[in-house]
Design a protein that fits this description.
Chain lengths: 413, 354
């Protein structure tokens, strides 16, 4: 046993040495760089949206750095981001946030992808008083916890599809509608559900199917079979990218006829490209659309952003990328107004943010959510085999009329 | 024997001093060290089944997850209505005072130790009659089912997840939280180690080994194998529940399938760590967990996006080259050091025979 003991002691001392030599070499501001930290889902169930987020961040960092960077106390600084992969796992995300702050010395954080992961990271950033601008955590419960260092550039999740219910009621002559809904078991989708419940109560609508979908979502045939049987006026589905893809795939396979189909994450799932005509008439909630008329001096208009993004990454930017880019613009603006790298000064500057970006107006409410920007709805419309997302609400930006009801499958070519 | 004990004493006191000093020496690594303690506990308790008893369980994650939910629920439920706390989007915020927080987590951990132990007894009674692959598959189902069920229970947050009470704001020291959870997990580690070491010196271990080596024969010898199997599993559940409770508080956010009943990660890791170090040994799981944690923390960020591929390669390498784990490998190479007597003549004779 004593030999093993010796071995073990050697082993422990080796580790000790390794740890001691592993001191943090980064700092909040290094030379001409302002270092931001972010845990992003590069693997796991959120990996596609994680990459959209990362692309959005990177695009904005490049653009801001190219256009002169951030000016603080007369000196120009550039942004740099340290990324870690949180594997779409809240436990890992919280651990990595700690690592970014304690070991890498990051003083300013960018959010991860998804509400669940943001919920896991927020207590950590809050504990160390690290300002975090996040672009992909929409769950309402994030903004009721009294977090002081959390700022979200997006609208809360419960607003995603409320408008859709209003639209349905309007089409029904102001009378309540019958709603069938299916939501993934995660923080974001459950919040979208709460929004629908509120809207249903407000409009006197009735919820006739209220299903839960598993996290590894690839089958919702049971829900759709029920929908076929009870014929609701509206079918609402939310389950991130996989939810949108699964819904369209199975609705078209099972030929489920429903007058209105409302979803989230259609553009992140590239529905109109992946499923083409099958996805036609789907109504989707979105934080942003390239046709909106907002402008800023870094990206110009939404259309210009979309074009540049397409050139750099080879696909149309979903709103997840746009809002992520906007997060960097918010940080830049806050640094310049604070004119300091003091965390609390930056935090105070963030509180006072009031700006327009290509993505929309940004102004933070008391809970940290963006209160200056409405949600929009678009509908997938096709010309021949060429399908596109067309904005249908709110009317200010609507390029097309809302098409209602969806024709039956037997009548669709 | 006495001499060895003295050496052991030096080793153990050295390790305890190192453990106590660690959060001060490596202040920035406190969270990782806490993880390490918990990982070692999970590997050691898995080893009781997988290594000593020969029952490869994937079900220990069930007790870990239960412990996590129980601690958090008790901690909240003792002072505030739990349903309102977890109600998604609830506008109310409750704040624990310092005393409430610590009382809550204390009672919570107690519950997190007891209830999983009882559940292990009940489930064990039902399924420990299964052997080999059948047992493994059955326990695999336990963890998955628990995750799906927990994801549907509104009072613990369902799919929304459960935010555990934040560390009391009255304690201004930002390091206090890290230290608190580190020492908690370190105490658990020491407790588990002492317990497992005690088992290693007892008749109980011999019985577990007998079950592993030939259960029918053990039964024929008059051992009530079922009883011992259940008690063994209950011991593991006790420590797994505590480990889960501590992790829940540390992570601050419980998700049904990704954090609590995380069979895909923690559930697999505990098996992997025990096998890496060498199952059926006292130090094997400790060394395995430590190596694994360093591998994971050190390398994973260097190979962003490829870490699971690297993990797969690691598993293949372990299974192919170290089927008995590091300790088993060492034992084969240096049997004298493990106190095994080698008859040189016999060895030579065997070599010549070949």
């Amino acid at each position: 046993m004593n030999k093993i003991a010796k071995l073990f002691v050697t082993f422990i001392s080796a580790i000790t040495l390794a740890l001691v030599s592993f001191t943090s070499s980064f700092a909040k501001v290094e030379g001409e760089y302002i270092v931001l930290g972010s845990a992003i889902s590069l693997t796991g169930k959120y990996s596609s949206n994680g990459v959209h987020t990362q692309n959005g961040y990177n695009m904005a960092v490049d653009r801001i750095n190219k256009m002169g960077g951030v000016e603080v106390q007369g000196k120009k600084y550039k942004f740099e981001i340290i990324y870690y992969d949180d594997e779409s796992n809240p436990k890992r995300a919280a651990q990595l946030a700690e690592r970014l702050i304690k070991q890498d010395g990051v003083h300013y954080m960018l959010g991860p992808y998804s509400s669940g992961l943001t919920k896991a990271i927020a207590p950590v950033t809050e504990k160390y008083k690290i300002p975090m601008v996040e672009a992909n955590g929409a769950s309402r419960s994030l903004f009721t916890k009294g977090y002081k260092y959390l700022f979200a550039v997006l609208s809360p999740a419960n607003q995603y599809l409320e408008v859709a219910i209003d639209l349905a009621v309007e089409k029904n002559g102001g009378k309540g509608v019958k709603i069938a809904q299916a939501f993934e078991q995660d923080a974001f989708s459950q919040d979208v559900r709460l929004g629908i419940l509120d809207a249903a109560k407000r409009t006197g609508s009735e919820i006739i199917i209220d299903d839960k979908l598993p996290k590894e979502l690839n089958d919702m045939a049971a829900t759709l079979a029920k929908v076929k049987a009870v014929k609701p006026d509206v079918l609402v589905v939310s389950g991130h990218t996989k939810g949108a893809l699964t819904a369209i795939r199975q609705i078209s396979e099972m030929k489920v006829d429903v007058p209105m189909l409302a979803m989230t994450h259609c553009d992140a799932a590239k529905l109109s490209k992946q499923h083409g005509k099958k996805s036609e008439f789907a109504l989707c909630a979105s934080q942003w659309h390239k046709n909106l008329s907002y402008k800023d001096k870094f990206f110009g208009s939404g259309k210009k952003y979309a074009k540049d993004f397409q050139k750099e990454f080879g696909y149309d930017p979903p709103y997840q990328s746009a809002e992520s880019s906007a997060a960097l613009l918010v940080f830049k603006d806050a640094f310049e107004r604070a004119n300091s790298f003091d965390r609390d000064a930056v935090r105070d500057a963030l509180v006072d943010t009031e700006m327009q970006t290509f993505y929309g107006n940004i102004k933070f409410g008391p809970g940290g959510q963006n209160v200056a920007k409405p949600m929009i709805l678009f509908q997938v419309r096709c010309k021949g085999d060429d399908c596109e997302n067309r904005v249908v609400a709110p009317t200010k930006w609507a390029s097309d009329k809302f098409y209602h009801p969806i024709p039956k499958w037997s009548e669709r070519s | 024997m006495e001499k060895l004990k003295q050496k052991d004493l030096i080793l153990y006191s050295g390790l305890i001093i190192l453990g106590l000093a660690a959060p001060y020496l490596f202040s920035a690594f406190k969270v990782q060290l806490t993880y390490l303690c918990v990982l070692i506990v999970l590997a050691m308790t898995w080893n009781l089944q997988g290594g000593e008893m020969g029952y490869n369980t994937f079900g220990n994650i069930l007790f870990y997850g239960l412990g996590m939910y129980l601690t958090a629920s008790v901690q909240v439920g003792m002072f505030f209505p739990l349903a309102e706390w977890t109600e998604s989007g609830g506008e109310k915020t409750f704040v624990h005072t310092t005393a409430q927080y610590f009382q809550g987590i204390g009672v919570g951990l107690l519950v997190a130790a007891i209830i999983p132990t009882i559940i292990a007894g009940a489930i064990g009674y039902a399924i420990l009659g299964l052997r080999g692959h059948y047992f493994a598959i059955c326990t695999l189902g336990l963890g998955i089912a628990a995750g799906e069920i927990a994801g549907g229970i509104e009072i613990i947050g369902a799919g929304q997840g459960f935010t555990t009470p934040p560390f009391p704001a009255e304690i201004v020291d930002a390091e206090a939280r890290g230290k608190f959870f580190y020492f908690l997990s370190f105490a658990l580690l020491v407790g588990t180690f002492v317990f497992v070491k005690y088992i290693y010196g007892s008749r109980f271990r011999l019985i577990l080994n007998a079950i592993r080596d030939n259960e029918d024969k053990a039964e024929a010898m008059g051992i009530q194998t079922m009883k011992y199997k259940i008690v063994g599993w209950m011991c593991s559940a006790f420590f797994c529940g505590l480990a889960g409770g501590i992790m829940g508080g540390l992570i601050g956010y419980i998700d049904s399938t990704d954090v609590a009943f995380d069979g895909r990660e923690m559930g697999v890791f505990m098996v992997l760590m025990a096998i890496l170090g060498g199952k059926g040994t006292l130090w094997g799981p400790v060394i395995g967990a430590t190596l694994f944690h360093f591998f994971k923390e050190g390398l994973w960020t260097l190979i962003l996006g490829w870490q699971y591929v690297a993990l797969g390669v690691l598993i293949v390498v372990i299974v192919v080259y170290f089927p008995e784990g590091l300790m088993g490998w060492l034992r084969e190479k240096y049997p004298e050091r493990f106190g095994e007597v080698i008859d040189e003549k016999d060895r030579k004779a065997q070599v010549e025979l070949k």
